[in-house]
């Protein structure tokens, strides 16, 4: 069968359009075939949730690769699932670390280029470069000749690379001891000092603190990665990103909103990092007690075990208080707990329910973020 005539849920995920989804599901709902509509929605969600994103992290010994990976995964260095860190080289082989909530997003901790087991001339071949979507080259000081040569080889392979200068908070604190210290001048000096431009086309250096991702250039790094990735991989990156600023939280809300009828409420909770394990990890990495994070939550769906009975109870309460329209006749689907759940809800009520849950959870994510920074938690 020609790919142009395949049902949307059998197409490669990068070829699926919103029009594909809507047309196919509407056809089934018009004929009251909710089971077929549910199956197609689930097929689509499975494809979306399994879009692979492979991120390679490389750099010299002691550059902070493992700490950076742990920060991206929302883990403290002492978490049992964290990449091992230390003052000596702890990465002696290619090691894969999946995101706790999104196992399709994988971070690969690569040994430093130019080590005895990974010499420069065969490095990319040895680490399996073809499987990576892009490379992040990390340094804790000036980038080395090996780093530059690696960047050139990555360019030759038509892959993207990004220079990240880690441990920037240490350098800033050292500069503070000097007279007439200016943070802006200090950061620009570090940016200019840490890379030579010979042979590299427009190298951009992102200054990052793995312990304070909301500071410096991490937001700019995320925006750059998002812009450079193929469209079908951008949501995978976005949802895996920690909530390091209000803009990322709003972007997640917009991404869910754009296809609100297809994402399940449980996806909202995980995407905003409001499930219990994610909040516990955030508590450990931010130093804010877990109970204090719980105290700012408003949604009854945050930090709880998601069940059909809980969702029905919340829907019933919303209806009785007038937050939603009264339940109406006519079977419709509503994706609530990971699979479409047939309920007697009109389309309008379904949309309002999902939109209500999405807004509440996005507001909670903002409150948690503000609490961690010691800000006023009102939204």
Automatic annotation (TrEMBL):
GO terms for molecular function: GTP binding; hydrolase activity. Residues 51-228 form the IRG-type G domain. One of its GO terms (cellular component) is membrane. InterPro entries: G_IRG_dom, Immunity-related_GTPase-like, IRG, P-loop_NTPase. PROSITE patterns: G_IRG. Transmembrane segments: none annotated. The keyword GTP-binding applies. The keyword Disulfide bond does not apply. SUPFAM superfamilies: P-loop containing nucleoside triphosphate hydrolases. It holds the Pfam family IIGP. Keywords: GTP-binding, Hydrolase, Nucleotide-binding. PANTHER family: INTERFERON-INDUCIBLE GTPASE, INTERFERON-INDUCIBLE GTPASE 5. Belongs to the TRAFAC class dynamin-like GTPase superfamily. IRG family. This is IRG-type G domain-containing protein. It comes from Astatotilapia calliptera (Eastern happy). The lineage of its organism: Eukaryota, Metazoa, Chordata, Craniata, Vertebrata.
């Amino acid at each position: 069968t020609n790919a142009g005539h395949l049902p949307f849920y059998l197409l490669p995920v990068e070829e699926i359009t919103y029009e594909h989804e809507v047309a196919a599901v509407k056809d089934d709902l018009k004929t009251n075939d909710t089971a077929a509509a549910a199956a197609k929605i689930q097929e689509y969600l499975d494809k979306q949730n399994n879009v692979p994103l492979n991120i390679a992290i490389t750099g010299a010994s002691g550059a902070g690769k493992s700490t950076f990976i742990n920060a991206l995964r929302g883990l403290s260095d002492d978490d049992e699932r964290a990449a091992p860190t230390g003052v000596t080289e702890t990465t002696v082989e290619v090691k894969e670390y999946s995101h706790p909530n999104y196992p399709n997003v994988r971070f690969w901790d690569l040994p430093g280029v130019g080590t005895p087991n990974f010499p420069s001339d065969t490095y990319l071949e040895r680490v399996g470069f073809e499987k990576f979507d892009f490379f992040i080259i990390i340094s804790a000081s000036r980038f080395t000749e090996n780093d530059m040569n690696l960047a050139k080889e990555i360019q030759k392979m038509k892959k993207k690379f990004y220079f990240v200068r880690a441990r920037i908070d240490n350098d800033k604190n050292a500069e503070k001891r000097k007279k007439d210290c200016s943070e802006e001048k200090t950061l620009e000096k570090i940016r200019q000092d840490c890379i030579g431009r010979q042979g590299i086309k427009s190298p951009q250096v992102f200054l990052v603190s793995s312990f304070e991702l909301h500071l410096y250039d991490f937001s700019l790094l995320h925006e750059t990665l998002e812009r450079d990735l193929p469209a079908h991989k951008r949501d995978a990156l976005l949802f895996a990103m920690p909530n390091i600023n209000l803009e990322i939280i709003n972007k997640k809300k917009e991404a869910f909103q754009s296809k609100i009828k297809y994402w399940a409420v449980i996806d909202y909770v995980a995407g905003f990092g409001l499930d219990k394990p994610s909040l516990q990890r955030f508590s450990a990495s931010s130093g804010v007690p877990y109970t204090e994070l719980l105290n700012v939550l408003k949604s009854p769906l945050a930090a709880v075990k998601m069940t059909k009975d809980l969702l029905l109870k919340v829907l019933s309460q919303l209806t009785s208080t007038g937050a939603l329209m009264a339940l109406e006749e006519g079977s419709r689907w509503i994706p609530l707990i990971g699979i479409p759940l047939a309920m007697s809800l009109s389309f309008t009520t379904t949309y309002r329910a999902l939109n209500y849950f999405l807004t509440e959870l996005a507001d909670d994510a903002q409150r948690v973020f503000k609490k961690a920074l010691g800000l006023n938690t009102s939204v």
